[in-house]
Amino acid sequence: MKKTAVIASAAALTGVFASAAVANADTVTVKSGDTVSKLAKDYNTTVDAIVNTNKLSNANLIFVGQKLEIGEATQADNNQQAAQGQQSQQVAPAVSSQQATTNYNTNSNYTSNVSGNEQAAKEWIAARESGGNYGARNGQYIGRYQLSASYLGGDYSPANQERVADQYVASRYGSWSAAQSHWLSNGWY
Protein backbone atom coordinates (compact mmCIF):
# COMPACT_ATOMS: atom_id res chain seq x y z
CA MET A 1 0.00 0.00 0.00
CA LYS A 2 2.74 2.47 0.86
CA LYS A 3 4.44 1.85 -2.50
CA THR A 4 1.19 2.56 -4.34
CA ALA A 5 0.73 5.82 -2.46
CA VAL A 6 4.30 6.89 -3.20
CA ILE A 7 3.94 6.04 -6.89
CA ALA A 8 0.62 7.87 -7.10
CA SER A 9 2.15 10.88 -5.34
CA ALA A 10 5.14 10.83 -7.69
CA ALA A 11 2.81 10.60 -10.69
CA ALA A 12 0.73 13.48 -9.38
CA LEU A 13 3.85 15.61 -8.83
CA THR A 14 5.12 14.76 -12.29
CA GLY A 15 1.77 15.83 -13.72
CA VAL A 16 1.97 19.12 -11.84
CA PHE A 17 5.48 19.82 -13.08
CA ALA A 18 4.64 18.70 -16.61
CA SER A 19 1.65 20.99 -16.74
CA ALA A 20 3.78 23.90 -15.49
CA ALA A 21 6.13 23.38 -18.43
CA VAL A 22 3.30 23.64 -20.96
CA ALA A 23 2.94 27.22 -22.12
CA ASN A 24 -0.39 28.85 -22.69
CA ALA A 25 -0.37 30.63 -26.03
CA ASP A 26 -2.17 33.92 -26.60
CA THR A 27 -3.01 35.34 -29.99
CA VAL A 28 -1.87 38.94 -30.18
CA THR A 29 -2.69 41.41 -32.95
CA VAL A 30 0.30 43.61 -33.78
CA LYS A 31 -0.32 47.32 -33.20
CA SER A 32 1.63 50.33 -34.38
CA GLY A 33 4.84 50.55 -32.39
CA ASP A 34 4.96 46.85 -31.49
CA THR A 35 8.20 44.98 -31.98
CA VAL A 36 8.92 41.31 -31.39
CA SER A 37 11.23 42.36 -28.57
CA LYS A 38 8.53 44.50 -26.92
CA LEU A 39 5.96 41.71 -27.24
CA ALA A 40 8.43 39.22 -25.77
CA LYS A 41 8.98 41.50 -22.78
CA ASP A 42 5.26 42.24 -22.34
CA TYR A 43 4.31 38.54 -22.44
CA ASN A 44 7.25 37.18 -20.44
CA THR A 45 8.73 35.19 -23.31
CA THR A 46 11.69 35.44 -25.68
CA VAL A 47 12.18 36.79 -29.17
CA ASP A 48 13.29 33.32 -30.28
CA ALA A 49 10.13 31.70 -28.89
CA ILE A 50 7.93 34.15 -30.85
CA VAL A 51 10.01 33.80 -34.02
CA ASN A 52 9.96 29.98 -33.85
CA THR A 53 6.27 29.66 -32.93
CA ASN A 54 5.19 31.96 -35.75
CA LYS A 55 7.86 30.85 -38.24
CA LEU A 56 8.98 34.45 -38.79
CA SER A 57 11.77 34.75 -41.34
CA ASN A 58 12.81 38.17 -39.99
CA ALA A 59 12.29 39.07 -36.32
CA ASN A 60 12.64 42.75 -37.24
CA LEU A 61 9.73 42.71 -39.70
CA ILE A 62 6.18 42.41 -38.38
CA PHE A 63 3.12 44.27 -39.63
CA VAL A 64 0.26 46.13 -38.00
CA GLY A 65 -2.74 43.79 -37.92
CA GLN A 66 -0.59 40.64 -38.08
CA LYS A 67 -1.67 37.93 -35.61
CA LEU A 68 1.09 36.27 -33.57
CA GLU A 69 0.90 33.31 -31.20
CA ILE A 70 2.71 34.18 -28.00
CA GLY A 71 3.26 31.95 -24.98
CA GLU A 72 5.51 31.98 -21.95
CA ALA A 73 9.07 30.93 -22.64
CA THR A 74 10.60 27.76 -21.31
CA GLN A 75 13.72 27.88 -19.17
CA ALA A 76 15.74 26.69 -22.20
CA ASP A 77 14.42 29.66 -24.24
CA ASN A 78 15.31 32.05 -21.43
CA ASN A 79 18.86 30.64 -21.18
CA GLN A 80 19.31 30.84 -24.95
CA GLN A 81 18.01 34.43 -25.03
CA ALA A 82 20.34 35.45 -22.19
CA ALA A 83 23.34 33.94 -23.99
CA GLN A 84 22.41 35.71 -27.23
CA GLY A 85 21.92 38.99 -25.35
CA GLN A 86 25.44 38.77 -23.97
CA GLN A 87 26.83 38.05 -27.43
CA SER A 88 24.88 40.90 -29.06
CA GLN A 89 26.05 43.34 -26.38
CA GLN A 90 29.63 42.59 -27.36
CA VAL A 91 28.94 42.99 -31.09
CA ALA A 92 26.44 45.88 -30.94
CA PRO A 93 28.84 48.87 -30.71
CA ALA A 94 30.58 48.01 -33.98
CA VAL A 95 27.26 47.46 -35.75
CA SER A 96 25.64 50.66 -34.42
CA SER A 97 28.50 52.90 -35.45
CA GLN A 98 28.48 51.34 -38.91
CA GLN A 99 24.71 51.85 -39.24
CA ALA A 100 25.05 55.44 -38.10
CA THR A 101 27.41 56.19 -40.99
CA THR A 102 25.34 54.40 -43.62
CA ASN A 103 21.73 55.26 -42.67
CA TYR A 104 21.90 58.80 -41.32
CA ASN A 105 22.39 62.10 -43.05
CA THR A 106 24.80 63.87 -40.72
CA ASN A 107 24.26 67.46 -41.89
CA SER A 108 21.13 68.15 -39.82
CA ASN A 109 21.27 70.27 -36.69
CA TYR A 110 17.64 70.33 -35.55
CA THR A 111 16.97 70.91 -31.85
CA SER A 112 13.43 70.43 -30.58
CA ASN A 113 11.99 73.31 -28.57
CA VAL A 114 9.48 71.08 -26.75
CA SER A 115 9.70 71.22 -22.95
CA GLY A 116 7.81 70.48 -19.74
CA ASN A 117 4.60 68.45 -20.07
CA GLU A 118 4.91 68.47 -23.85
CA GLN A 119 8.39 66.90 -23.60
CA ALA A 120 7.02 64.30 -21.17
CA ALA A 121 4.21 63.44 -23.62
CA LYS A 122 6.75 63.23 -26.47
CA GLU A 123 8.98 60.87 -24.47
CA TRP A 124 5.94 58.79 -23.48
CA ILE A 125 4.97 58.33 -27.14
CA ALA A 126 8.58 57.48 -28.13
CA ALA A 127 8.72 54.85 -25.37
CA ARG A 128 5.48 53.23 -26.57
CA GLU A 129 6.27 53.41 -30.27
CA SER A 130 9.89 52.21 -30.30
CA GLY A 131 11.27 51.97 -26.79
CA GLY A 132 13.04 55.26 -27.62
CA ASN A 133 15.12 53.60 -30.38
CA TYR A 134 15.97 55.74 -33.43
CA GLY A 135 16.80 52.56 -35.38
CA ALA A 136 13.50 50.74 -34.73
CA ARG A 137 11.55 49.49 -37.77
CA ASN A 138 8.06 48.07 -38.11
CA GLY A 139 7.18 47.58 -41.76
CA GLN A 140 7.08 51.05 -43.36
CA TYR A 141 7.36 52.79 -39.98
CA ILE A 142 10.83 53.90 -38.95
CA GLY A 143 12.59 55.27 -35.94
CA ARG A 144 11.87 56.59 -32.49
CA TYR A 145 8.40 57.89 -33.34
CA GLN A 146 7.55 55.17 -35.91
CA LEU A 147 7.00 57.66 -38.70
CA SER A 148 6.25 56.58 -42.25
CA ALA A 149 9.35 56.36 -44.43
CA SER A 150 7.68 58.81 -46.82
CA TYR A 151 7.53 61.49 -44.10
CA LEU A 152 11.25 61.08 -43.37
CA GLY A 153 12.26 61.42 -47.02
CA GLY A 154 15.12 58.94 -46.78
CA ASP A 155 16.88 60.82 -43.97
CA TYR A 156 16.61 58.62 -40.87
CA SER A 157 18.95 60.68 -38.72
CA PRO A 158 17.87 61.36 -35.13
CA ALA A 159 17.73 65.10 -35.86
CA ASN A 160 15.44 64.60 -38.87
CA GLN A 161 13.23 62.19 -36.90
CA GLU A 162 12.84 64.82 -34.16
CA ARG A 163 12.10 67.59 -36.68
CA VAL A 164 9.56 65.55 -38.67
CA ALA A 165 7.87 64.22 -35.51
CA ASP A 166 7.47 67.76 -34.14
CA GLN A 167 6.03 68.95 -37.49
CA TYR A 168 3.71 65.95 -37.80
CA VAL A 169 2.34 66.34 -34.27
CA ALA A 170 1.93 70.12 -34.59
CA SER A 171 0.02 69.82 -37.87
CA ARG A 172 -2.14 66.83 -36.92
CA TYR A 173 -2.80 67.28 -33.18
CA GLY A 174 -1.54 70.74 -32.24
CA SER A 175 0.49 69.45 -29.31
CA TRP A 176 2.27 66.38 -27.99
CA SER A 177 -0.25 66.20 -25.12
CA ALA A 178 -3.11 65.96 -27.62
CA ALA A 179 -1.16 63.30 -29.55
CA GLN A 180 -0.71 61.35 -26.32
CA SER A 181 -4.46 61.56 -25.60
CA HIS A 182 -5.16 60.25 -29.10
CA TRP A 183 -2.67 57.42 -28.56
CA LEU A 184 -4.34 56.48 -25.28
CA SER A 185 -7.73 56.32 -27.00
CA ASN A 186 -6.64 54.53 -30.18
CA GLY A 187 -3.29 52.80 -29.57
CA TRP A 188 -1.55 54.93 -32.22
CA TYR A 189 -0.91 58.57 -33.01
Q: Can you walk me through this structure?
A:
The protein is mainly alpha-helical. The protein is built from 8 helices and 5 strands, in the order αβααβααβββααα. The chain has helices at residues 2-21, 36-42, 47-54, 75-103, 116-130, 149-152, 158-172, 176-186; strands at 25-29, 67-71, 137-138, 141-142, 147-148.
How are the secondary structure elements laid out?
Blueprint: H1 2-21, E1 25-29, H2 36-42, H3 47-54, E2 67-71, H4 75-103, H5 116-130, E3 137-138, E4 141-142, E5 147-148, H6 149-152, H7 158-172, H8 176-186
Antiparallel strand pairs: 1-2, 3-4, 4-5
Helix pairs in contact: 2-3, 5-8
What is this entry, summarized?
The protein has 189 residues and is mainly alpha-helical. It is built from 8 helices and 5 strands, in the order αβααβααβββααα. α2 crosses α3 and α5 runs parallel beside α8.
